[in-house]
Amino acid sequence: MYLGDEAWPDLGTYFEEESLALVPLGSTEQHGPHLPESTDHVIAEAFAREAADRTGFLCTPTVNVGVSGHHRQFHGTMWVEPPVFREYVESLTRNLTAHGVDRVVYVNAHGGNVPHLREVGARLRQDEVAYAIEWMWDESIPDLVDDLFAQNGPHGGPKETSMIQYLEPELVHDDRLAEARDGGVASVDEADTVMHGSRTFYDAADNTDNGVLGDQTDASAEKGEQLFEAATEQLVALCEWLDDQAFADLMPEDHV
Amino acid sequence: MYLGDEAWPDLGTYFEEESLALVPLGSTEQHGPHLPESTDHVIAEAFAREAADRTGFLCTPTVNVGVSGHHRQFHGTMWVEPPVFREYVESLTRNLTAHGVDRVVYVNAHGGNVPHLREVGARLRQDEVAYAIEWMWDESIPDLVDDLFAQNGPHGGPKETSMIQYLEPELVHDDRLAEARDGGVASVDEADTVMHGSRTFYDAADNTDNGVLGDQTDASAEKGEQLFEAATEQLVALCEWLDDQAFADLMPEDHV
Amino acid sequence: MYLGDEAWPDLGTYFEEESLALVPLGSTEQHGPHLPESTDHVIAEAFAREAADRTGFLCTPTVNVGVSGHHRQFHGTMWVEPPVFREYVESLTRNLTAHGVDRVVYVNAHGGNVPHLREVGARLRQDEVAYAIEWMWDESIPDLVDDLFAQNGPHGGPKETSMIQYLEPELVHDDRLAEARDGGVASVDEADTVMHGSRTFYDAADNTDNGVLGDQTDASAEKGEQLFEAATEQLVALCEWLDDQAFADLMPEDHV
Amino acid sequence: MYLGDEAWPDLGTYFEEESLALVPLGSTEQHGPHLPESTDHVIAEAFAREAADRTGFLCTPTVNVGVSGHHRQFHGTMWVEPPVFREYVESLTRNLTAHGVDRVVYVNAHGGNVPHLREVGARLRQDEVAYAIEWMWDESIPDLVDDLFAQNGPHGGPKETSMIQYLEPELVHDDRLAEARDGGVASVDEADTVMHGSRTFYDAADNTDNGVLGDQTDASAEKGEQLFEAATEQLVALCEWLDDQAFADLMPEDHV
Amino acid sequence: MYLGDEAWPDLGTYFEEESLALVPLGSTEQHGPHLPESTDHVIAEAFAREAADRTGFLCTPTVNVGVSGHHRQFHGTMWVEPPVFREYVESLTRNLTAHGVDRVVYVNAHGGNVPHLREVGARLRQDEVAYAIEWMWDESIPDLVDDLFAQNGPHGGPKETSMIQYLEPELVHDDRLAEARDGGVASVDEADTVMHGSRTFYDAADNTDNGVLGDQTDASAEKGEQLFEAATEQLVALCEWLDDQAFADLMPEDHV
Amino acid sequence: MYLGDEAWPDLGTYFEEESLALVPLGSTEQHGPHLPESTDHVIAEAFAREAADRTGFLCTPTVNVGVSGHHRQFHGTMWVEPPVFREYVESLTRNLTAHGVDRVVYVNAHGGNVPHLREVGARLRQDEVAYAIEWMWDESIPDLVDDLFAQNGPHGGPKETSMIQYLEPELVHDDRLAEARDGGVASVDEADTVMHGSRTFYDAADNTDNGVLGDQTDASAEKGEQLFEAATEQLVALCEWLDDQAFADLMPEDHV
Question: What is the pLDDT of residues C171-219, one digit of tens each?
């Protein structure tokens, strides 16, 4: 069920009986010469809506702008500062609990949001307000991702390219895939991001010219569909597991 | 041009030449038994995209959750606290200026966001970071609104109902319009919101049972179309006026 | 009863029996060539003290500096930033409740404070700490204001001029009333403050040369007295109504 | 010159030529059974206005509520939390500099405000925004205070009692002076506030029953006048000294 | 008992039975040409560990960097801004209470930390989270300090020099004591820090060339030992007194 | 060079010529039944001091308490909330730049601090205040760690045990190593920390009874020495590389 489509009286029964919300979060940021800036929020919303459709759990509207300051050198990247993002997500989540929601899955498709969602989730749990966890689709199917791509790339690579080819094909510049690969860094190992144990880079522009990594020519809509199906199954399973838990079991352990 | 659809290299020319962004902001909140909770952000996004299409100015993705704590008693209303909303919008806007944007129209369709957007805009201008102003569609066409409806209602009334009937007809429960009117407060004058010069109410639930005001049976998709056309023209004119100004003329006056 | 004049043991009975405080708030800001910068806090304090005298409710000392950044271009205007003002008023009000106060009237005479006092009041009520509402004298007697003045002006106009002529006549430069009118904007309609539905101005200096609006020559101490009497009656009535309510009835409604 | 009394055009010359502002700050808090809660802000305002009258420097309206949480157990004490007080004073002072003020004397009559005013002053100076310093009347005339009173008391004692007897005699309950002494702690040495080198008390209520220290029967309006005259001379001298300094000499030293 | 040395299971008994923690806090800042920048945190840690050893109470690791912005002009001084210091100490202390600690002695050896520790302590007590008080060694033995030194100096003087000569002799440049005295301000009275009752200086560099006051040639390790022994006894006595109190007796008084 | 040991005049030359500071940061938190709570800050300080000794770069005192809320259920764990930790480190670092430091290595030995140090570092770099990067010893020698231990454990495992056996042998309970292994989770793979792609645990107590992972019986002081030597070499190399860079090259790239 998509919250945005519903009139309030039609949500009463859900809140009485269920208490789980899927909150999609992404980013609006450069994804190379071939992918749209909406890539991450399009993916997050697709997963959250699909899982909600299949299970009957509630999906909320999407947080479209996240923590993307590390892409600031590229035209159009939008972002909010990390403390602001955390406050926004925390406030939004706390207020959801006014209706009875007590467990939340942050359906997230942007790596830059991860530590912030974890921090918010830890705080909400510690306060015993809600149990909120972060989920990223590719983390749920690491073996399939490895199987499908030789160089999947952490940002704007064939993994995300395939996904948008499947979800929003008209937004992919298929004629720029080789350009994306050749103007970026095909292999993450070559990206030279760690120096004597320290991550010495901060911005995408520090180690790529066009903002992306991996071999984009390896992408296809068919692979996108495979990824989407496999990861949706994982998300559905996560929601069902979460729904089965007693709230008390999700809350912090007692002091030893 | 819709920022979310573009790949970054395709935005370079725009940022060199233009510097205006339309940022749609709405809310996700109860709009009575007949309208979807997405009402305000659907309307905001429709206006911003339409004006961007007609003019070539840039439209960003939408901020879907705003300041709606005064609807908290109704299922599904989402909100962030006012300071959080201001921080989020301010951070998002400041960062847009990294690419050259220096004037912003907050295409807003939720009254509860207004003072906060004004406060953010004043701060950005005072810092000479950007000139950002708030626009609400119904404020731009007050005479037409008055002409079309006897009781337009400030929230969930025939004005917003007509708009959604036009923009997203499948999301309106047309069979509940009389129920919406009868269970709410048809006339704002009757809503009893001011006592000896003081606004004594804080929440929608203080003076309406179902969360809405006005006579919803007076709505139609045709009226929605009229409103949309008329207000879009105003928004287009505003953008063009704004684009014509020298940046210095938009900045604060000098001390006397 | 004026709190500042009392020794603490003499307040014990009041706090046992009553729980209402009148808190005057104004600004220190330019009011044109004819009125003193204290105009707003002088008016606020006069109303609060008078209503306290007539009813026996408690009046606190005045907050003299408010949200007046939009008058910054004129010599002597003092202000604090909006978040600071909100924090100050909220902290002051929360702490008043330590003694038993649970309802507060913000006797406010400065339009720029309004949204901030509303925001603070909403927060205090939501936390069930106190029921605090904002009152402005001219909002309580709109018909009389309209009757007395052809062009009353929202700032430094004949309405405020009459009030200071009545309350502190020696602080009015009666010989500058025509100058005030001619150097300002006589008619608000001419002030050109809204463009295609958007309020495009932020500072008083954007649309007036001397900082004021309306026709000041229309002012008189007699009119000031009429206004003061009429609005005081409204404030007294508001306090009495408020005092009659059960605290629970002033608190937020339950979730539907 | 008192800022509140002036119309803005009449301040232009001052700001061109002078750049010093006296800002009175006090508290609204219990001062025993004999003194009004306004004691501290009445005293602060009296000194600031008098020094302004004698010198022609600018005096602003008064900050009436300060850091008085340590008197919270007594009816009527008003306060804001320390961070809020600092923010309020800092914002107010920063904004004064918009008109050309670059040195400020915080004419303070409440000990609880001191560290906070020092902290704000340090920050403003470090940022090279203004040179703001805190002044307390009794600190400027320690020998006279010692001469006049055997037990002057740090709060609500004969020192402050004499001052109010002189400034606002009708606000003193002269018939309660012995009661004030006997119900409080006559000698600070007996107040038992330090334990093995640690100040172990936080609130006035921790060591006095009626909130005051010292021997109030030792007070008189004549002594108040002496104190007022002597301390005013000090304040005048301080302002003149300050006015004589080059701004650069008031700013932080360079790094060694 | 030193918390840092213990494995968690070995602390269980302590937290069951005792509830007092000694938290050492100092600074890292210039102490003249003869003393190390660690002076204050070395002293704080020495006292806290010694008192813990003698009594069995718990000593935590040390907060090494405090509020020392007023020494910023001298090489190597480290500091955090006052609000940051307060937040750090408050958060650290609140979290200690998770294990049962409900009374804390801030064993502090830096004057610049004092008002901030008092502010944090007041807040923690008001919230009834813990009773935390600040202790400085020299405040506990004022007579001995006066006896031992003609000019003890508030910073980097013979008092602190003696202490480091005793605690960490290899860190004192004994050959620079006369240089320290001659390049600084031997007598505090001569430091010219108060003007007509106002403290007009903010930084150490405002009134000393080398950052220190007092006559350092008057220092010796023997005096340091005397001071250390005498003040440790005071700290031990304070802890024992604190331990003897009922928690309720340490909490705020009720409203009168 | 260790900053804490130096008198300020002796640091002048360093700041003129060098601009790198090593800042050790750890935590004070449970490390199982066999290791002291100081484990992480002892390790951090040892590395930072050793690298400073070998290279001549500056080492500051240690931040002993970090982000360890996820160990709160175990006696003695100390922590500050994440926003507080970030503010503390950021303020401390910004202020170091007053002396000329413009590059900082956060020598960190606690995984829970990592994202916060990265966030602070990104902010400092974006503001062009300093280039600060986080380094963790075990991240610098992943192959050696893998070679030495079958199950190294991310917290309190043989890796950290070996290190403390080498650095502070008297603080290790060698007789509890088997107990540590058997009461914890020997293999991280068994710790069940990820569910369908989501990290579903927040606290150490969620998946271990005694707070530690890995096989502690595999530890030895010899291995500790090997690890210490190898990682110190990496840290030295990192500092030298950093020192060789032009500051401009460490700052953010320009917008494309």
Answer: 999 999 999 999 998 876 766 788 999 999 999 999 899 999 999 999 9
Beta pairing partners, E104: E21, E132
**Chain-chain contact of C256 with B197 (C-beta, under 8 angstroms):** no
Which residues from E are below 8 Å from D130, CB to CB? none
Non-local CB neighbours of F237 within 8 Å, separated by 6+ positions: A196
Interface confidence (ipTM) of the complex:
0.97
CA-nearest residue of chain F to B100? Answer: F255
Segment among B4-13, C189-198, D74-83, F121-130 with least mean pLDDT? C189-198
What single-letter DSSP state applies at residue A254?
P
What pLDDT is attached to residue D53? 98
Q: Is the distance from CB of D113 to CB of D99 less than 8 angstroms?
A: no
Tally the residues of chain D: 256
Burial group, residue B154, by CB count within 10 angstroms (0-12, 13-18, 19+):
middle
The C-alpha R_g of chain C, in whole angstroms, comes to 19
Beta-carbon count within 10 A of E169 CB: 11
B-contacting chains (≥3 CB pairs under 8 Å): A, C, D, F
The two structure tokens encoding residue F77: 């764990």
| Closest chain A residue to the Cα of E9, Cα to Cα | A256
Q: How close is the nearest chain B Cα to the Cα of D211, in Å?
A: 38
D153: closest CA among D109, D215, D211? Answer: D215
Q: What is the 3-state secondary structure (H, E, C) of C72-132?
A: CCCCCCECCCHHHHHHHHHHHHHHHHHHCCCEEEEEECCHHHHHHHHHHHHHHHHCCCCEE
Residue A249 near residue A185, CB atoms below 8 Å: no
Distance CA C47, CA C44 (A): 5
Contacts of A237 in chain F (CB under 8 A): 196
How many CB atoms neighbour CB C243 within 10 A? 14
- Within chain A, residue ranges assigned H as helices are 12-17, 39-55, 82-96, 114-126, 137-140, 142-148, 158-167, 177-183, 204-207, 221-244, 247-250
Nearest to C100 by CA among D79, D81, D73: D73
For C44-99, the pLDDT digits (tens) are 999 999 999 999 999 999 999 999 999 999 999 999 999 999 999 999 999 999 99
Q: Are F164 and F39 in contact (CB under 8 A)?
A: yes
- Nearest-neighbour CA in chain F from D256: distance (Å): 9
Residues of chain E neighbouring C99 (CB-CB closer than 8 A): 255
CB contact under 8 A, B12 and F255: no
Residue E186: per-residue pLDDT: 80
Q: How many CB atoms lie within 10 A of CB F212?
A: 28
Strand blocks (E) in B10-93:
20-25, 58-59
Alpha carbon A130 to chain centroid, angstroms: 20
Nearest Cα neighbor of B130 from B151, B102, B157, B167 is: B102
Determine contact, residues D215/D153, Cβ cutoff 8 Å.
yes
Do strands C58-59 and C20-25 pair parallel, antiparallel, or not at all (unpaired)? parallel
Tokens 């900050």 identify what position? Answer: D63
Query: Do residues D221 and D167 make contact, with C-beta atoms less than 8 angstroms apart?
Result: no
- Residues 118 through 177 of chain F touching chain A, CB cutoff 8 Å: 118-119, 121-122, 125-126, 133-141
Is the CB of residue A254 less than 8 Å away from at least one CB of chain E? no
pTM beyond 0.95: yes
Are C77 and D92 contacting, i.e. CB atoms less than 8 angstroms apart?
Answer: no
Residue A142's φ and ψ, nearest 5 degrees, are -60, -35
Distance from C-alpha of D6 to C-alpha of A250, rounded to nearest angstrom? 64
Residue C161: alpha-carbon gap to chain centroid: 15
Mark the ranges of chain E whose per-residue pLDDT is less than 70: 188, 190-191
Q: Is F195 on the interface with D (CB under 8 A)?
A: no
